[in-house]
Fold this protein.
Amino acid sequence: MHKQFHQVQWDQALEDDLRQLLELAIREDLGRQGDLTSQAVVPHDARGRAAVVARNSGVLAGLPAAAQAVATLDPQLSWTPEADDGQSVQPGDRVALLEGPAAAMLAAERLLLNLLGRLSGIATLTRQYVDAVAGTRARIYDTRKTTPGWRRLEKYAVRCGGGTNHRTGLFDAILIKDNHLALGSGRFTPAEAIARARQFLEGQGSEALREAVLEIEVDTLAQLDAVLPLAPDIVLLDNMTPDLLRQAVARRDAAQVATELEASGGVNLSTVGPIAATGVDRISVGALTHSAVGMDLGLDWL
Protein backbone atom coordinates (compact mmCIF):
# COMPACT_ATOMS: atom_id res chain seq x y z
CA MET A 1 0.00 0.00 0.00
CA HIS A 2 1.52 3.31 -1.07
CA LYS A 3 1.76 6.00 1.56
CA GLN A 4 -0.43 9.04 1.06
CA PHE A 5 -0.22 12.62 2.24
CA HIS A 6 -2.93 13.89 4.57
CA GLN A 7 -6.02 14.71 2.53
CA VAL A 8 -7.78 17.92 3.55
CA GLN A 9 -11.36 17.50 4.74
CA TRP A 10 -13.87 20.05 5.97
CA ASP A 11 -12.82 19.79 9.62
CA GLN A 12 -12.12 21.87 12.71
CA ALA A 13 -8.65 22.94 11.52
CA LEU A 14 -10.08 24.26 8.26
CA GLU A 15 -12.93 26.05 10.06
CA ASP A 16 -10.41 27.68 12.41
CA ASP A 17 -8.49 29.02 9.41
CA LEU A 18 -11.71 30.27 7.85
CA ARG A 19 -12.79 32.00 11.06
CA GLN A 20 -9.60 34.06 11.10
CA LEU A 21 -9.89 34.87 7.38
CA LEU A 22 -13.50 35.99 7.81
CA GLU A 23 -12.55 38.33 10.64
CA LEU A 24 -10.02 40.02 8.37
CA ALA A 25 -12.30 40.00 5.31
CA ILE A 26 -15.18 41.63 7.17
CA ARG A 27 -12.87 44.22 8.72
CA GLU A 28 -11.27 45.16 5.39
CA ASP A 29 -14.68 45.61 3.69
CA LEU A 30 -16.78 47.21 6.44
CA GLY A 31 -14.12 48.86 8.60
CA ARG A 32 -15.56 50.59 11.66
CA GLN A 33 -18.19 52.59 9.80
CA GLY A 34 -20.01 49.75 8.06
CA ASP A 35 -21.61 49.97 4.61
CA LEU A 36 -22.06 53.70 4.05
CA THR A 37 -24.09 53.26 0.85
CA SER A 38 -26.66 50.97 2.47
CA GLN A 39 -26.87 53.24 5.50
CA ALA A 40 -27.63 56.12 3.15
CA VAL A 41 -30.18 54.56 0.80
CA VAL A 42 -31.52 51.23 2.15
CA PRO A 43 -34.46 51.45 4.59
CA HIS A 44 -33.57 49.99 7.97
CA ASP A 45 -36.47 47.54 7.91
CA ALA A 46 -36.06 46.40 4.29
CA ARG A 47 -35.78 42.68 3.77
CA GLY A 48 -34.74 40.74 0.69
CA ARG A 49 -34.42 37.40 -1.02
CA ALA A 50 -31.74 36.66 -3.62
CA ALA A 51 -30.14 33.74 -5.40
CA VAL A 52 -26.46 33.11 -5.98
CA VAL A 53 -26.30 32.21 -9.66
CA ALA A 54 -23.50 30.79 -11.81
CA ARG A 55 -22.56 33.08 -14.69
CA ASN A 56 -20.33 30.49 -16.35
CA SER A 57 -19.80 26.74 -16.19
CA GLY A 58 -17.55 25.17 -13.59
CA VAL A 59 -17.21 23.04 -10.48
CA LEU A 60 -18.43 24.35 -7.14
CA ALA A 61 -16.35 24.56 -3.97
CA GLY A 62 -16.76 26.54 -0.77
CA LEU A 63 -20.46 26.35 0.03
CA PRO A 64 -19.76 25.55 3.71
CA ALA A 65 -17.42 28.57 3.77
CA ALA A 66 -20.21 30.77 2.46
CA ALA A 67 -22.57 29.47 5.14
CA GLN A 68 -20.02 30.28 7.86
CA ALA A 69 -19.46 33.74 6.36
CA VAL A 70 -23.18 34.51 6.43
CA ALA A 71 -23.53 33.36 10.03
CA THR A 72 -20.52 35.44 11.05
CA LEU A 73 -21.64 38.60 9.28
CA ASP A 74 -25.23 38.65 10.51
CA PRO A 75 -27.07 35.80 12.31
CA GLN A 76 -30.36 37.17 10.93
CA LEU A 77 -29.34 36.11 7.44
CA SER A 78 -30.52 32.76 6.11
CA TRP A 79 -28.32 30.73 3.72
CA THR A 80 -29.81 27.75 1.87
CA PRO A 81 -27.50 25.86 -0.52
CA GLU A 82 -29.16 24.51 -3.66
CA ALA A 83 -26.09 22.60 -4.92
CA ASP A 84 -23.14 20.70 -3.47
CA ASP A 85 -19.38 21.14 -3.44
CA GLY A 86 -17.88 19.16 -6.30
CA GLN A 87 -21.01 19.58 -8.43
CA SER A 88 -20.72 20.87 -11.99
CA VAL A 89 -22.92 23.85 -12.86
CA GLN A 90 -23.87 25.67 -16.03
CA PRO A 91 -24.59 29.38 -16.64
CA GLY A 92 -27.87 30.32 -14.98
CA ASP A 93 -27.84 27.50 -12.42
CA ARG A 94 -28.83 28.54 -8.92
CA VAL A 95 -26.24 27.73 -6.29
CA ALA A 96 -27.85 29.02 -3.08
CA LEU A 97 -30.56 31.23 -1.65
CA LEU A 98 -29.84 34.18 0.66
CA GLU A 99 -32.61 35.83 2.69
CA GLY A 100 -32.82 38.40 5.46
CA PRO A 101 -32.23 42.09 6.17
CA ALA A 102 -31.46 43.75 2.84
CA ALA A 103 -28.58 45.85 4.18
CA ALA A 104 -26.89 42.76 5.62
CA MET A 105 -27.36 40.93 2.31
CA LEU A 106 -25.65 43.75 0.46
CA ALA A 107 -22.82 43.73 2.99
CA ALA A 108 -22.39 39.97 2.53
CA GLU A 109 -22.53 39.97 -1.28
CA ARG A 110 -18.88 40.55 -2.15
CA LEU A 111 -17.56 38.39 0.68
CA LEU A 112 -19.72 35.46 -0.46
CA LEU A 113 -18.88 35.83 -4.13
CA ASN A 114 -15.15 36.21 -3.42
CA LEU A 115 -15.10 33.01 -1.34
CA LEU A 116 -17.17 30.94 -3.73
CA GLY A 117 -15.55 32.37 -6.84
CA ARG A 118 -11.98 31.75 -5.68
CA LEU A 119 -12.56 28.22 -4.43
CA SER A 120 -14.80 27.20 -7.32
CA GLY A 121 -12.20 28.51 -9.76
CA ILE A 122 -9.63 26.18 -8.21
CA ALA A 123 -12.04 23.23 -8.31
CA THR A 124 -12.88 23.98 -11.94
CA LEU A 125 -9.25 24.14 -13.06
CA THR A 126 -8.44 20.99 -11.11
CA ARG A 127 -11.24 19.10 -12.83
CA GLN A 128 -9.79 20.11 -16.21
CA TYR A 129 -6.42 18.61 -15.27
CA VAL A 130 -8.03 15.47 -13.84
CA ASP A 131 -10.04 14.99 -17.04
CA ALA A 132 -6.88 15.53 -19.13
CA VAL A 133 -5.15 12.50 -17.53
CA ALA A 134 -8.18 10.19 -17.51
CA GLY A 135 -7.28 6.67 -18.55
CA THR A 136 -3.71 6.85 -17.22
CA ARG A 137 -2.35 5.86 -13.83
CA ALA A 138 -1.41 9.45 -13.01
CA ARG A 139 -3.09 11.37 -10.20
CA ILE A 140 -3.13 15.17 -10.09
CA TYR A 141 -1.62 16.74 -6.96
CA ASP A 142 -1.55 20.31 -5.71
CA THR A 143 1.47 22.05 -4.14
CA ARG A 144 2.23 24.59 -1.40
CA LYS A 145 1.95 27.44 -3.92
CA THR A 146 -1.18 28.71 -2.21
CA THR A 147 -2.51 32.07 -1.04
CA PRO A 148 -1.10 32.73 2.47
CA GLY A 149 -3.76 31.84 5.02
CA TRP A 150 -5.96 30.09 2.45
CA ARG A 151 -3.98 26.85 2.15
CA ARG A 152 -6.45 24.43 3.71
CA LEU A 153 -9.37 26.07 1.91
CA GLU A 154 -7.58 25.96 -1.44
CA LYS A 155 -6.50 22.37 -0.95
CA TYR A 156 -10.07 21.50 -0.03
CA ALA A 157 -11.14 23.07 -3.33
CA VAL A 158 -8.61 20.89 -5.18
CA ARG A 159 -10.28 17.86 -3.63
CA CYS A 160 -13.69 19.15 -4.76
CA GLY A 161 -12.31 19.19 -8.30
CA GLY A 162 -11.15 15.58 -8.08
CA GLY A 163 -7.49 16.29 -7.36
CA THR A 164 -5.29 14.92 -4.58
CA ASN A 165 -3.51 16.89 -1.88
CA HIS A 166 0.28 16.95 -1.64
CA ARG A 167 1.68 17.75 1.82
CA THR A 168 -0.23 20.46 3.66
CA GLY A 169 2.93 21.99 5.10
CA LEU A 170 6.52 21.40 6.06
CA PHE A 171 5.29 19.74 9.25
CA ASP A 172 3.67 16.62 7.80
CA ALA A 173 6.14 14.99 5.40
CA ILE A 174 9.81 14.90 4.46
CA LEU A 175 10.58 16.19 0.97
CA ILE A 176 14.32 16.47 0.28
CA LYS A 177 14.58 19.07 -2.48
CA ASP A 178 17.42 20.38 -4.61
CA ASN A 179 18.21 23.18 -2.16
CA HIS A 180 18.61 20.69 0.68
CA LEU A 181 20.99 18.68 -1.47
CA ALA A 182 22.88 21.80 -2.57
CA LEU A 183 23.31 22.79 1.07
CA GLY A 184 24.61 19.31 1.80
CA SER A 185 26.99 19.22 -1.16
CA GLY A 186 30.22 17.72 0.07
CA ARG A 187 28.46 16.57 3.23
CA PHE A 188 26.06 13.95 1.88
CA THR A 189 24.78 12.49 -1.39
CA PRO A 190 21.08 12.10 -2.29
CA ALA A 191 21.22 8.47 -1.14
CA GLU A 192 22.84 9.51 2.13
CA ALA A 193 20.18 12.18 2.60
CA ILE A 194 17.48 9.50 2.40
CA ALA A 195 19.34 7.39 4.94
CA ARG A 196 19.61 10.37 7.30
CA ALA A 197 15.92 11.19 6.87
CA ARG A 198 14.84 7.59 7.48
CA GLN A 199 16.99 7.42 10.62
CA PHE A 200 15.38 10.68 11.81
CA LEU A 201 11.86 9.30 11.28
CA GLU A 202 12.64 6.03 13.01
CA GLY A 203 13.74 7.98 16.07
CA GLN A 204 10.46 9.86 16.45
CA GLY A 205 8.22 9.01 19.39
CA SER A 206 4.98 9.44 17.46
CA GLU A 207 3.88 6.59 15.20
CA ALA A 208 2.33 9.12 12.82
CA LEU A 209 5.71 10.84 12.43
CA ARG A 210 7.53 7.55 12.02
CA GLU A 211 5.14 6.74 9.15
CA ALA A 212 5.45 10.16 7.47
CA VAL A 213 5.95 10.21 3.71
CA LEU A 214 9.60 10.32 2.62
CA GLU A 215 10.16 11.93 -0.78
CA ILE A 216 13.26 13.14 -2.59
CA GLU A 217 13.66 15.35 -5.66
CA VAL A 218 16.06 14.39 -8.46
CA ASP A 219 16.74 16.00 -11.81
CA THR A 220 18.86 13.34 -13.52
CA LEU A 221 18.50 9.64 -14.22
CA ALA A 222 21.84 9.06 -12.49
CA GLN A 223 20.42 10.53 -9.28
CA LEU A 224 17.34 8.33 -9.69
CA ASP A 225 19.51 5.23 -10.02
CA ALA A 226 21.33 6.21 -6.85
CA VAL A 227 18.21 6.59 -4.70
CA LEU A 228 16.02 3.74 -5.98
CA PRO A 229 17.87 1.01 -3.99
CA LEU A 230 16.81 2.83 -0.80
CA ALA A 231 13.15 2.73 -1.90
CA PRO A 232 11.89 6.16 -0.77
CA ASP A 233 8.12 6.47 -0.83
CA ILE A 234 8.22 8.94 -3.73
CA VAL A 235 10.85 10.31 -6.09
CA LEU A 236 10.07 13.72 -7.54
CA LEU A 237 11.32 13.97 -11.13
CA ASP A 238 11.95 17.65 -11.65
CA ASN A 239 11.58 19.24 -15.09
CA MET A 240 12.22 16.05 -17.04
CA THR A 241 11.10 15.66 -20.64
CA PRO A 242 8.52 12.96 -21.48
CA ASP A 243 11.32 10.81 -22.91
CA LEU A 244 13.31 11.03 -19.68
CA LEU A 245 10.16 10.36 -17.65
CA ARG A 246 9.54 7.17 -19.64
CA GLN A 247 13.11 6.08 -18.97
CA ALA A 248 12.66 6.85 -15.28
CA VAL A 249 9.51 4.72 -15.11
CA ALA A 250 11.32 1.84 -16.85
CA ARG A 251 14.22 2.06 -14.38
CA ARG A 252 11.87 2.14 -11.39
CA ASP A 253 10.00 -0.89 -12.73
CA ALA A 254 13.26 -2.75 -13.37
CA ALA A 255 14.38 -2.02 -9.81
CA GLN A 256 11.18 -3.69 -8.53
CA VAL A 257 10.59 -1.18 -5.76
CA ALA A 258 7.29 0.26 -4.57
CA THR A 259 8.53 3.83 -4.98
CA GLU A 260 6.08 6.08 -6.78
CA LEU A 261 7.28 8.62 -9.33
CA GLU A 262 6.05 12.21 -9.35
CA ALA A 263 6.52 14.53 -12.32
CA SER A 264 6.83 18.25 -11.68
CA GLY A 265 7.75 21.34 -13.68
CA GLY A 266 6.49 22.56 -17.03
CA VAL A 267 3.03 21.15 -16.39
CA ASN A 268 0.07 22.83 -18.07
CA LEU A 269 -3.12 21.66 -19.75
CA SER A 270 -1.26 21.13 -23.02
CA THR A 271 1.56 19.06 -21.53
CA VAL A 272 -0.15 17.15 -18.73
CA GLY A 273 -1.58 14.47 -21.05
CA PRO A 274 1.79 13.51 -22.61
CA ILE A 275 3.38 13.60 -19.14
CA ALA A 276 0.73 11.23 -17.77
CA ALA A 277 1.19 8.91 -20.75
CA THR A 278 4.79 8.23 -19.67
CA GLY A 279 3.52 6.07 -16.80
CA VAL A 280 4.33 8.33 -13.82
CA ASP A 281 2.10 7.88 -10.79
CA ARG A 282 1.74 11.50 -9.70
CA ILE A 283 1.83 14.90 -11.36
CA SER A 284 2.10 17.97 -9.13
CA VAL A 285 0.67 21.20 -10.54
CA GLY A 286 1.27 24.52 -8.83
CA ALA A 287 -1.10 26.22 -11.28
CA LEU A 288 -4.11 24.59 -9.61
CA THR A 289 -3.88 27.17 -6.85
CA HIS A 290 -1.59 29.95 -8.06
CA SER A 291 -3.14 30.45 -11.50
CA ALA A 292 -6.81 29.53 -11.17
CA VAL A 293 -9.26 32.14 -12.48
CA GLY A 294 -12.17 32.77 -10.16
CA MET A 295 -15.55 31.41 -11.19
CA ASP A 296 -18.06 34.11 -12.15
CA LEU A 297 -21.03 34.10 -9.76
CA GLY A 298 -23.62 36.75 -9.10
CA LEU A 299 -26.26 37.65 -6.52
CA ASP A 300 -29.65 38.20 -8.19
CA TRP A 301 -32.62 39.64 -6.32
CA LEU A 302 -35.76 37.51 -6.51
Summary: The longest strand covers residues 47-54. DSSP finds twelve helices and twelve strands in the chain. Residues 15 and 92 are 29 Å apart (CA to CA). Residues 102-132 form the longest helix (31 residues).
